[in-house]
């Protein structure tokens, strides 16, 4: 067994960071105007009918699939390094916790490196893993072009790299070299297919509610491969179901999260007084300024807001009607366990899973909200399925 990484970034700070992010969502929550309350109603027309039919299939378990019913036994005696883009958001924190849970079941040594949303730190994490000669490097939410130099070094050291919600260099540019040994499959297909599915789900929900009268502000984060795919899927589905509907795209960066993001969205709302919908690429945009901007602008009653809604803070925004109404949900626990299974299959010399278990679903105030204070989770018992395959309890 290889020794664990000696340099680990502490996760304790993630709790405090999460509190800050959550607090941003409650800042500036002015009282919304009752004059526009009638605007927050269901639309009609052909677009609403077609979208409504597709929306029904996204409620409940949505596109999630059961894990494969067979697979190799759990492989013992391995050390894995998980390099996470950052644990300052609920998503990163949840992935770290789920990875610890799943690898502990297999008895693996796991080292977690917090990239702090800084590409130079991502590369440092990969290099630390190389120095310690781990058996595998697991990247979460770190696209290959950002760390290509360090990945070259990992390749020279013959350490396989596995991707979880990360795009390979060849995904971004077909002429580029591939650096990932394996990539986590999704029910939708590959990473880009899944990202487009998230955007399609947002468009379907908004059109089911707004119909032919939809006038949407889309807030996109084009610097990330997955959020760029979300935007592609969103706009394609809007054009498919309602070609005459208006979409105004506002581009932001992860560096904007917090007051700058809130200001950019507030400006977009001011410039688009007739907009009746707002699409945010994923949940962090809601908690890090988006929902607060809606409330402060007194547009909560006239706008339907959709994002991602995995975590308790965003579930509460929907439940309390504070600048968020719906969104796609994604169980990071399931995805992390599926990633561990992907790596275990490699260690065992087996092929990748023949199906993509993790997928997406949609929740709103009337469908599928998690209990108060809880994150959303799929009702598929993936833990038992993987344990049975691995031969552990």
Care to describe what's here?
The structure is a single chain. The chain is of the alpha/beta class. The chain has two domains: 22-62 and 191-329, 3-Layer(aba) Sandwich (Rossmann fold), CATH 3.40.50.2300; 79-186 and 332-390, Rossmann fold, CATH 3.40.50. Helices cover 42% and strands 13% of the residues. The strands form two sheets. The protein has a six-stranded mixed β-sheet with strand order 7-6-8-9-10-11, with helices on both faces. It has a five-stranded parallel β-sheet with strand order 2-1-3-4-5, with helices on both faces. Strand 6 (215-220), helix 8 and strand 7 (246-251) form a beta-alpha-beta unit. Helix 1 (12-26) packs parallel to helix 10, helix 7 crosses helix 8 (225-241) and helix 9 (259-271) crosses helix 10 (283-296). The two termini are 22 Å apart.
How do the SSEs run, as a string of H and E?
HHEHEHEHEHEHEHEHEHEHEHEH
Quaternary form: single chain
> Which ranges are low-confidence, i.e. pLDDT below 50, for 5 or more consecutive residues?
1-38
Average pLDDT confidence is: 88
Kindly provide the name of the CATH class of the largest domain. Answer: Alpha Beta
The number of distinct structural domains comes to: 2
SSE map:
Elements: H1 12-26, H2 45-56, E1 79-84, H3 90-106, E2 109-114, H4 119-131, E3 136-140, H5 148-156, E4 161-164, H6 169-172, E5 182-183, H7 191-210, E6 215-220, H8 225-241, E7 246-251, H9 259-271, E8 277-280, H10 283-296, E9 304-308, H11 312-319, E10 326-329, H12 332-347, E11 361-364, H13 382-390
Parallel strand pairs: 1-2, 1-3, 3-4, 4-5, 6-7, 6-8, 8-9, 9-10
Antiparallel strand pairs: 10-11
Helix pairs in contact: 1-10, 2-7, 3-12, 4-5, 7-8, 9-10
